Hints:
Elements: H1 2-20, H2 27-34, H3 46-51, H4 54-80, H5 84-103, H6 110-122, H7 124-136
Helix pairs in contact: 1-5, 2-7, 4-5, 4-6, 4-7, 6-7
Signal peptide: 1-28
InterPro entries: DUF4168 (IPR025433)
Protein name: DUF4168 domain-containing protein
Amino acid sequence: MDMINRYALIASLTATLVSFTAFSPASALEMAQAQETQPTQGQAGKGTDAAISDQKIQAFAVAYLQVDKVRQAYSAKIEATTDAAAKEKLQTEASKQMVEAVESSSAISVEEYSSILTAAQNDPALAKKVQEKIQTTPPAQQ
C-alpha cells in the first residue's frame, strides 16, 4: 500500500512537472488567483486555508523552490529530446528527484506537499498566501 501511494505521488509530481514546463513556477498559483473573481470563490476552501498552518506554508515554499530547481534542470532536457522513450525516462528521473527534494525536508512530507499544491490550485486565497511565501523565502533556505 505504501509503495502504491508513493508511486501515485510520483505520478502527481510528474504531472506537475509536465504542466510547469510550459509555465513559470508561479503560473499555477497565478491561474488560481485569476479565479478570485469567480462567484464560487467565497465557497472554495476557506476551511482549507485555515487548516494549513503558516509553518506548513513556509515548509511548502522551501520545498517548492527545491522542486522548481529540479524542474528547471530537467525542463530543457525534456523539451530538447525528440525520442519518446528518452523523454519518458527523463520525466521519471525528474519525478524521482522532485520526490527526493521534498523528502529531504524534515518540515513537510510528500503527501502534505501534494495536498498544499492541490489546495493552492483550487483556493485563490491560499494560492496568494503560498505565492507570497515563495517570493519572500530567503535564498539561504532555497
